[in-house]
Amino acid sequence: MTPKNPIINIEGLSQFYGDKQVLHDINLYVRKGEFITLLGPSGCGKTTLLRLIAGFLQPTQGRILLDGNDISDVPPYRRPLNTVFQRYALFPHLDVYDNVAFGLKLQKVPEAEIEKRVKKVLKLVSMSDYEDRDVNSLSGGQQQRVAIARALINQPRVLLLDEPLAALDLKMRKDMQIELKEMHKKLGITFIYVTHDQEEALTLSDTIVVMNEGRIQQIGTPIDIYNEPVNAFVADFIGDSNILNGKMFRDRRVAFIKHEFDCVDEGFGENVSVDVVVRPEDIYFTTDPAKCQFTAKVNSCIFKGVHYEMWVDTDTGYELMIQDYDPYPVGSEVMLYIDPDDIQVMKKERRLNSFDARVVAEGRVSFLDTEFECNTEGFAEGDAVRAEVRFDKVDLLDHEEGAALTGNIVAILYKGDHYHLTVKTEDGDHIWVDTNDIWDKGDFVGIRILPEDIKLSIVVSADE
Amino acid sequence: MNKRSGWALPYFIFLVLFVVLPLLLIVMYALQDGSGHFTLANLGKFFSDRDSLSTFALSIEVAIENTVLCILIGYPAAYILADKRLNRSAVTVVLFILPMWINALMRTLATAELFTMAGVQLGKGTLLFGMCYDYLPFMIYPIYNQLNKMDKSYAEAAQDLGATPAEVFRKVTLPLSMPGVWSGVMMVFMPTVSTFAISEFLTNNKIKLFGTIIQENINNSMWNYGAALSLVMLVIIAITTVLQREEADES
Asked: How far apart are CA A18 and CA A332, in angstroms?
């Protein structure tokens, strides 16, 4: 899979902060001249990965190759890479010229050549008349340009950009996106770009690396990532989407929202639970009863500038988002259909909460460092068992009393008729919950599991 | 008029009573003779008296030496304290500041006692030791503060552009910490010029500093000459303050 001469090759990279693992076995290559974006929510490890490449951090495990040479132990000042920092980090005691010339002066380049190159690179970022300006007197966008010029003047093999546009307002951000893209084309330098803005990633990148919780979720072109997300996280993070529980009957036939549809996906097996993604612009209105696959009632309709965003309640009780250029009045009954091509079927990442557990006494098991009551019939004290709890059997409470565990909601996924929540316990373990209640991301919750909802099974260990 | 400006009244009265009035008195006394007539003789006496002038020069010299000494010891100390890799606890910082909580006179007396016990000859060496010991925290703290609040991405950016750790220090960390050094200089240099207790105890009055002769004159009821000497010192303080402002504005 790795091409012949990747400029950067990351092999088996893991990173720990103390006991906390922030990157899990990252494998990634970057082609020469590519614009690659590391995309993910805050805390997903994308900035850590960039800092490892820049050399500000030493990898705990694994290695980073530049042109085939291991640079894991090379200090940042000897790496032919330059970084554009999130808050620019322009030296406040130097003017624009001296900031940009900083790298060349260190290399003892003759003064005449420095001047020539500074002028050239300032022209590239359209900052020609600002040489003598104090950097603090510049606007955010101008500081950004100087920061890019300062990084580019060293002619790095790879330019690293850490959320460079995050501090700019929307209009400026859009303009800078176009300029960055043009600069990349003109210079032919490899760009590694970090952002949490999916739209920015889709606009700029040749390749997007979607990350979550220290793991790479998907690597692909913007079009691949948008049209064929590999899991519910990617589908939810990139663009708007309807993510629904479904069942694959057989190849090219899938059921969701209690209707059956033709699709183009194969190889999942028969009667297998899957996640289904349908983009809101891929659900079509029709007046032809022969085309109609299901009916729905329009619940809300909002004008979004280019299109209308409508929420509809299907005849089977699911809520779907639809985007269309034409509005349909709230309350009207509509006929809808979806093209087989536009149904993206994904393997379910998980079906149940499953924990390594131990029977501690008659009627008591322990998992997640907590004891729970449950039926332990058929198991003896001390047995290692697997405890499974269905997503919809985990109760969330807004207080600690009566809760076995506490945690915070870290992710929310709407599945048409219920919410699928990811709760992170204080020890950093995950519990997934299906609920109809509305919670917010970051909410502190108590977790309760009733004895009859914990199902124990035997763990088959390797040596038995 | 804004109602709230009334709140400033107590402070205003305080300022007038304890700052403006004493300053005016100093100027008045300095420009009068013993019977209350206007004269420049007091100032003239200072500028024509070789002893006073040499004491004054010595004071400035000692103050400069002490300030340089404090920078040489204080900067590395502040740097180590501000470096998260070298110093992980806030307790160490407190330990450096702790001596400031004890009365300077007590510390000086104790130091003098220790020198006597160890049989060290009291003189300029012990004077500088005592001054440095007394004023070092005033140098460390502003530098530490400046280094501590410095965005570490500046150092990273410099490294990223090819600066070795030594170059990062010389070209980025040091220039950016200069405001801290300047306020340290202010807090050390000026009090050292006017100190008299340290020289009295740590040199057994062998070395007289400018503060000492002011104190002696006032003690001997020569208020007018003492006030004139104080005025000279005030001018020096004013000049250093202005110079420091200009330096701070530049960096």
From this structure: 57
Question: Of A56, A75, A82, which has the smallest distance from its Cβ to B161's Cβ?
Answer: A82
Q: Which residues contact residue A392 at a Cβ distance below 8 angstroms, ignoring those fewer than 6 apart?
A: A418, A433, A434, A435
Would you give per-residue pLDDT tens digits along chain B (251 residues)?
A: 566 788 889 999 999 999 999 999 999 998 888 788 888 888 888 888 888 889 889 989 999 999 999 999 999 999 999 988 887 777 888 888 787 788 888 888 998 999 989 988 888 899 999 999 889 999 999 999 999 999 989 999 999 999 999 999 999 999 999 999 999 998 898 888 888 888 888 888 888 888 888 888 888 888 889 899 999 888 888 888 888 777 766 65
Nearest Cα neighbor of A211 from A227, A231, A191 is A231
* Coil, strand or helix at B97: helix
**A91–B251 CB contact, under 8 Å:** no
Residue of B84, B161, B174 to mutate, interface with A, max A Cβ within 10 Å: B161
Instruction: Please check whether residue B174 touches A, CB under 8 A.
Output: no
Q: What residue of B is the nearest CA neighbor of A99?
A: B158
DSSP state of B122: P
Tell me whether A102 touches chain B (CB under 8 Å): yes
Contact yes or no for A22/A44 (Cβ under 8 A): no
Q: How far apart are CA B196 and CA B212, in angstroms?
A: 5
Torsion sign over Cα A399, A404, A405, A411: negative
Q: Got the DSSP string for A207-259?
A: EEEEEETTEEEEEE-HHHHHHS-SSHHHHHHSS--EEEEEEEEETTEEEETTE
Question: CA A442 to CA A407: how far, in whole Å?
Answer: 9
Q: What digits encode the pLDDT tens for the residues A223-281? A: 999 999 999 999 999 989 999 999 999 999 999 999 999 999 998 989 999 999 999 99
SS3 per residue for B124-168 = HHHHHHHHHHHHHHHHHHHHHHHHHHCCHHHHHHHHHCCCCHHHH
B172/A77 Cβ within 8 A: no
Kindly give, in sequence order, each residue whose CB lies less than 8 Å from that of residue B200, ignoring residues fewer than 6 positions away.
B212
Largest CA distance in chain B: 72
ipTM above 0.95, yes or no: no
**DSSP string of A337-396?**
EE-GGGEEEEE-S-SSEEEEEEEEETTEEEETTEEEE---TT--TT-EEEEEE-GGGEEE
In angstroms, rounded to a whole number, what is the distance separating the alpha carbons of residues A216 and A36? Answer: 13
Exposure on the CB side of residue A418, measured as CA atoms within 13 A: 10
End-to-end CA distance of chain B: 38
CA-to-CA distance for B236 and B113, rounded, in angstroms? Answer: 33
Asked if B160 and A82 come within 8 Å (Cβ–Cβ), the reply is: yes
Q: How far is C-alpha A337 from the geometric centre of its chain's CA atoms?
A: 29
Q: How many residues does this entry show for chain B?
A: 251
Task: Evaluate whether A248 touches A270 at the Cβ level (below 8 Å).
Answer: yes
Going from the C-alpha of B190 to that of each of A228, B78, B185, B206, B211, the distances in angstroms are 72, 21, 8, 22, 11
B162 near A CB under 8 A: yes
Structure tokens at A168: 């700019």
Distance CA B152, CA A206 (A): 32
What pTM was computed for the model?
A: 0.82
User: Given B151, B156, B162, which is nearest A106 (Cβ)?
Assistant: B162
Write out the H or E segment, with its range, that includes residue B231: helix B223-250
